[in-house]
Specification:
Length: 293
């Protein structure tokens, strides 16, 4: 992480969480504040009705804006990241979600914290993303990028999924489990953590393979270099599998299908307000030390 110098943010994209009145109230305040600074606001269709500007589709917003402000939770930011990262647009998160590991600007002091960021005092952090390309019945389909994780699982939760993992072409293991989470360091505090995986600092270039409810207790999480290419191959008799990216995009899998996963060429850039402390976020969100004197 590093402090960012004098900024030239002039066109600000605003992406809002859907179906939340509190979010729209925050977006309205945000839009007024940005306009008072003489900045151009580019709202998505959710934010547009209270922003005073015409809606801009997210793909077009990513080509036009210098900075994207997400008002919502981590899920909203994950969705925004798939549009912004390929265009190298940094993201600031205003927390209107439930947990908020990445959206670290509070609505209560939003204007002051955003002024610090817009004045060049923010802390820039580039987060590893992963790209997964399914090879379905021998025919590759479009690849997708994910900030948190790629998950292969059985849609029928009462049945185990059988699959192989390979790293750089070398066989690793044959698994019987509900599925597997392939996680970035950012995603290590999400689905991977609830499945028993380790917390990996976001400054480490690594991927984590976390089996979901494995049939054997010896099938443990594995941390590998982000320079590796991972392959997950679904066994032939499995016909109801699914691959998901960040829990938001999915594609069905059949027996014999395979997923190739590697670090994406682009990274997602977050900008934090001054004083950002990763370990403070962990202590706060995971309630470390509660009940101690």
């Amino acid at each position: 992480m590093q402090a960012k110098g004098v900024t030239s943010f002039q066109h600000i994209g605003v992406i809002a969480k859907r179906e939340d009145a509190a979010v729209l109230t925050t977006v309205e305040r945000l839009s007024r504040h940005l306009a008072q600074r003489g900045l151009t606001v580019l709202p998505d269709p959710v934010a547009a009705p209270v922003s005073g500007a015409d809606a801009v589709p997210r793909a077009e917003m990513a080509r036009q804006c210098d900075l994207c402000i997400v008002v919502g939770g981590d899920g909203t930011l994950l969705d925004a990241g798939r549009y912004m990262a390929p265009q190298d647009v940094p993201i600031v998160g205003v927390n209107r979600g439930r947990l908020g590991f990445m959206v670290d600007v509070s609505p209560d002091d939003m204007s002051a914290r955003l002024d610090e960021i817009l004045d060049g005092q923010g802390i820039r952090e580039d987060r590893l993303m992963i790209e997964a390309r399914p090879d379905v019945q021998g025919d590759p389909i479009a690849s997708f990028i994910a900030l948190n994780d790629v998950v292969v699982r059985n849609r029928a939760f009462n049945r185990l999924l059988e699959f192989d993992t390979r790293i750089n072409g070398e066989f690793v293991n044959r698994h019987r489990a509900d599925g597997i989470v392939i996680s970035t360091p950012t995603g290590s505090t999400a689905y991977a953590l609830s499945s028993g995986g380790p917390i990996v600092h976001t400054g480490i270039d690594a991927l984590t393979l976390v089996p979901i409810c494995p049939h054997t207790l010896s099938d443990r999480p594995l941390v590998i270099s982000a320079n590796s290419e991972l392959e997950v191959v679904v066994h032939g008799h499995n016909t109801d599998a699914l691959v998901t990216w960040d829990g938001q995009v999915s594609h069905p899998l059949a027996g014999g299908d395979r997923i190739r996963i590697r670090a994406a060429d682009k990274r997602m850039t977050l900008i934090h307000p001054p004083g950002y402390d990763y370990f403070h976020i962990l202590r706060t969100k995971l309630h470390w030390g509660r009940g101690q004197n």
